[in-house]
Request: fold
Amino acid sequence: MATAASWKPLLLRALDSNAHLKHSAFFQLVLPPSLACFSYLILIENYVAGDDRLQRKTFQSDGRIQIEEIKHCHFGEICWYFTESWEQFRINGKIDIIDGANSDACKLQQREKAWFASSLKSRLQYLAPAPRLPDISNGSGEENQLDPSEGPVEAFCLLLFDPEQVDYLNLKSNERFIFTSRSSEQGFKLWMSEKVNP
Amino acid sequence: MATAASWKPLLLRALDSNAHLKHSAFFQLVLPPSLACFSYLILIENYVAGDDRLQRKTFQSDGRIQIEEIKHCHFGEICWYFTESWEQFRINGKIDIIDGANSDACKLQQREKAWFASSLKSRLQYLAPAPRLPDISNGSGEENQLDPSEGPVEAFCLLLFDPEQVDYLNLKSNERFIFTSRSSEQGFKLWMSEKVNP
Reply:
């Protein structure tokens, strides 16, 4: 029987109890149909701010290669295993890619905000040669220049992930819960949970 | 320009330099089209034995739920990130699922060997209620019994993963290599590597 409950306290607790492990901040986002799979560093503030959406500033350096296929893929799954507390989260949700061609002014603003929030060093990644293409530099690493006041370059994208279902497995307590969301009439997201066999 | 080289020494080195981190033994196997994604504990001996194939004894407890979709999926990708050495391996390859109905006597033998090689406790997992179905136990955890000399139960499967392409990214040296395999006339697997932009 499903009851009203959110998965967010569980994730916050897992992040907290694994905080001393650097790797606990990493999870993987899996995207069909291409098996594109990335390691991500999550922005935990988004949770603390109470925002359900997971936000990732960039596709790291391989964004330019995979951005096209990801644009046509609107769903993904985040797999997150916490080795200290033996907890696994599989979070299914909608994906929104915001590039410079986006028609939504607010989203373009979010993208710009994310650009200026990232270090100059990480911004410079987007001026480097396109990832996964043959290296023809012959070791000549000529440095790119970037004006700090310059807005996002074309290769820079913002990814938003909006969770819809969460499969939570606790291997210590040997318990498993499936959290499913629906929108209220007011447009709020309501979460229900059901206890399932681990 | 592609040159003959194998990715295995890189992986062995990464496993070695991250050995003190418990989580470095974990990676994720990603399977289309269902976004099925598991956390796995790798059997490192397989590498040391010089076997190219990654072998995983079981699908952990959720095998029974996802086994059907995985049976129809012959390719997968292993994503493995080493947080200490900043190395990422994305290994694409063929998947072989060996259940009790397999027609190959050698493979059935491998499955049986894997069954007896796992602890009685982990074998008992396969007698527990089917994972991800509603929990109707009402907390009454009746214990299953299992004869230690009894062979693999139906739910027990062996997964073999045979790498075909490896994308290696080193974020410390900022280098990236794509390793691609082909079979020699003698049926051996030959690996070529190409340096690409990180």
